Amino acid sequence: AEAVYVKDIDITMDNAIDNLLYADAKNLALLKEAVMDFLAENTEEASEKISFSDVPGHVMKDLMVAFSRKEKTKQGNQDGDNNFTIMRVSELRK
Length: 94
Fold this sequence. Notes:
Blueprint lengths: L1 H7 L7 H10 L3 H13 L1 H7 L7 H18 L14 H4 L2
């Protein structure tokens, strides 16, 4: 059910934090990852339009991991292949 929801949802600046907090509260790893990826791809716009004041500290750490994963992918750095900290949910479920 979660995979279908993630596939069908349109994550926007208006609903990103709500989806992120919901995913965190319900332990929905795929949804959380999708929102984190969206925020990592739209960092500048998100920092201007979204308030992160209600986001718990442990979620901010997860967000930093998403940024790191994006940068490593952009640089073509595959050293993280065995680094469980930055692996995607689908990779961990294999």
